[in-house]
């Protein structure tokens, strides 16, 4: 099963009488256990595509399946629960809760997923160590550097052990060295936690680390690049077939 499948997906934003077509005829399967980058110029539809995959927004056309479930037919309360358990989010502006410490920010999604106190402590502790922030556990976001904030955001995204993590331009607000460290950390976490990562980015450092790159322009897929030699290392049995391969 693919972590994400889209079939003929389209999205139009409506601003009064004006229609802005953001995505058209998007058909693709994201492979399991790999690092996929959605690449395209500003305004090409990257964020819209991530928002649809993340069930933050709904398409006007087509079908989206996440972890095998047709998400647009789920009732709202079931969808929020599904999203909390199956999908982690990382944003370019970190989106941490300013009044909560690093520890509490990572713990927050575990509260939403109704994980018990002892298990919450165990997971948050393990994640703080994994992202190298044990000594900053009590710091508020304002008391952390940009790279440290993004590390907290990565740990938070992985807290519920989701099968899928979505990241919208995760290195956009970081200098190139910190960006490289963050990519390396995400790469390591993706491999260790056996999770599928989907990024939007035009950062060449992110492209270089990707297994698969999906190129979009004016809301349409214009190319797909699969780095198979990398993919073979990380893809699990049965996950190699790809739909929508274009060049
Ligand atoms: N809420 C909205 N209302 C109306 N139009 C929108 C809205 N959000 C995005 N758009 C339009 O949809 C198109 C795709 O936007 P989107 O933000 O998905 O692009 P993007 O590739 O993520 O761009 P960037 O790299 O600049 O973030 C653009 O033409 C944009 O102006």
From TrEMBL:
PROSITE patterns on file: ABC_TRANSPORTER_1, ABC_TRANSPORTER_2
SMART domains: AAA
Domain of life of the native organism: Bacteria
Single GO molecular function: ATP binding
Domain ABC transporter: 4-243
Lipid metabolism recorded as keyword: no
Annotated GO CC locations: membrane protein complex; plasma membrane
Keywords annotated in UniProt: Antibiotic resistance, ATP-binding, Cell membrane, Membrane, Nucleotide-binding, Transmembrane, Transmembrane helix, Transport
InterPro entries given in the database record: AAA+_ATPase, ABC_transporter-like_ATP-bd, ABC_transporter-like_CS, ABC_transpr_LolD-like, MacB-like_ATP-bd, P-loop_NTPase
GO biological process: response to antibiotic
Similarity annotation: Belongs to the ABC transporter superfamily. Macrolide exporter (TC 3.A.1.122) family.
Protein name: ABC transporter ATP-binding protein
Taxonomic placement: Bacteria, Pseudomonadati, Pseudomonadota, Betaproteobacteria, Rhodocyclales
